[in-house]
Amino acid sequence: MTAKQIQQVHSTTPQVAEELRKMIDTGFPMLAMGLISYLKNMILVMCMGRLGSLELAGGALAIGFTNITGYSLLSGLALGMEPLSSQAFGSKNFNMLSLTLQRTIAMLLVVSLPISILWFNLEPLMLWLHQDPMIIHTAAVFCQFAMPDLVANSFLHPLRIYLRCKGTTWPLLWSTLLATLFHIPVVFYLTFTLRLGIKGIAISTYVANFINVLFLLAYIFYTKEQNESTLNKPLATTNLKPSASLGEEWMILLRLAIPSCLAVCLEWWWYEFMTLLAGYLDKPQVTLATAAIVIQTTSLMYTLPSALSSSISSRVGNELGAGRPGKARLATDIAIVMAFLASTFGILLTTLGREVWVKIFTTDSEVLELTMTVLPIIGLCELANCPQTTCCGVLRGSARPNIGAFINFYSFYVMGAPLAIILAFVLRLGFKGLCYGLLAAELACVVSMLVVIYRTDWEKEWAKSKELVGANGEASYEDLIIKYKGEEFRFCIEDGVDLEK
């Protein structure tokens, strides 16, 4: 085999096509699932609006509070199992795969306890901060009746990640679709027929999530997985012994979960920070309404990078666990190219489609004018946000969430936040200044992420994977040194590659 052939082992057209197929097969169900979840949230807000302005205001406050103090923490902590699960599956360490699932569920259930105490005491806390008593009471009722949803999410997030890390994403889509189809009539029945009001909305949410959990558990325990069972038995018969409560493996999970949580929360909280600042600008009714539309817009656009991030995290982890660092690098390159292409959707929505989109939410002339002015800036943010979110997935899959957390911190809070305040309040650009601050944060984030990703030593990451999960790629990966005309070429022999001696 010639030197040129050796260097081309990782970049043949069939390999690129195969990797692209795997990315789409994994990512498309995640994208569809994100859109269904977005629709579900819009239905909740619509029901609150039909109940009245007080319920809408209280419900909006409750949703923001539960997102900041609860759901963001649970979803972020659950992501700590991604590198362990994906690399364990790639290395065929199925015992670690099962134990990681159990430990993550246990961790989230423990974390849910202080969160539930906080939710239960929302009313006295907010009254101490001199908020409107009627709005606070409505929000407190929602939070108290939504507390069981913490338990549902403590199971739902790990189960989704568990299946996703095995490349099994279509069941996630079907379970979400079925749960949402069940949720729609239930929320209307509880809210309007039984006249439970805001309580019915909260109850319907956790009922739908528990149904989703049951669907996923049924799939896991009664479906045969060829990739996991050499005995071809249902997963219900595999070894699922309870894990130890202490030990080094628990510490590894926590060391991955905490920075993963920070990486998610730091970016999530920035949007709430922007909404808070919007309330201090001139004409706060207009700026807050615009902020609400912007957040709805970014939530819709985020479904694309979120699906890519989840997909590439699993792919990178699987390939590193299987001992194929070259394929992990190839998957990363393809995912980042796809991310830049996908970001054009956000630009088109916020430029060519902005007028139609904004009129879905409001007919107020001032809100229309301001929102249509700032949406193109938000579109530029998406040009950076889509690749940087995808890069976060690469870092998670290679067990480096601490780098993502650090980059998010200095990008959004050291650079973005001060610049946003200066532009909005000192230079008096108003809400546009806040959006420019977000753009600066996103640009700093994506540049930093890309530098880290393209300086990655993938063979070193494979070696780290061996230490983390006992990766074993002997069947498909051989680290060889070939002498050719006095030079050394280091490469991987992938399955099916025929070498000429």
UniProtKB/TrEMBL annotation:
Recorded topology in the membrane: Multi-pass membrane protein
Segments traversing the membrane: 30-51, 57-80, 101-122, 134-152, 172-192, 198-222, 252-271, 286-309, 330-349, 405-427, 434-454
Record GO biological process: xenobiotic detoxification by transmembrane export across the plasma membrane
GO molecular function, one term: xenobiotic transmembrane transporter activity
One GO cellular component, as annotated: membrane
InterPro entries, per the entry: MATE_euk, MATE_fam
Record keyword RNA-binding present: no
Entry coiled-coil feature ranges: none
Keyword set, alphabetical order: Membrane, Transmembrane, Transmembrane helix
Localization per record: Membrane
Annotated signal peptide: none
Top-level taxon: Eukaryota
The keyword Membrane is assigned to this record: yes
Family according to the record: Belongs to the multi antimicrobial extrusion (MATE) (TC 2.A.66.1) family.
Record's protein name: Protein DETOXIFICATION
Lineage, top ranks: Eukaryota, Viridiplantae, Streptophyta, Embryophyta, Tracheophyta
